[in-house]
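Exercise 3.2. Students should predict the tertiary structure of the chain below and write it as structure tokens, then compare their answer with the key that follows.

Predict this chain's 3D structure.
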Amino acid sequence: MDGKATQPKRRRCPRKHRSTSAVGGNHIAPSAEKSNGKATAASKARSNSKSATKSQLVENNRMLVQTITRHLQELKNDNPPDSDSFNPTI
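Answer key:
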């Protein structure tokens, strides 16, 4: 012995892990897209889709901004500020 105290090895608690291998482990159900061996319309569209052009991305962003702005305005109209609430604009 070299005089160094040795720490006893800690024993790990066994844990069940999901296995990604074909053998052993817990069974993981296939994704809904692969149910019955058929691809859904959404997965087909994804696999056949082409990259969006810059103008398409700009248009998509514009529509998203409009939609979010509209929803925020609706929320604001549904929940008018209380007179007791803190209002930083005053």
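Discussion points: The first helix runs from residue 41 to 48. The two ends are 77 Å apart (CA to CA).
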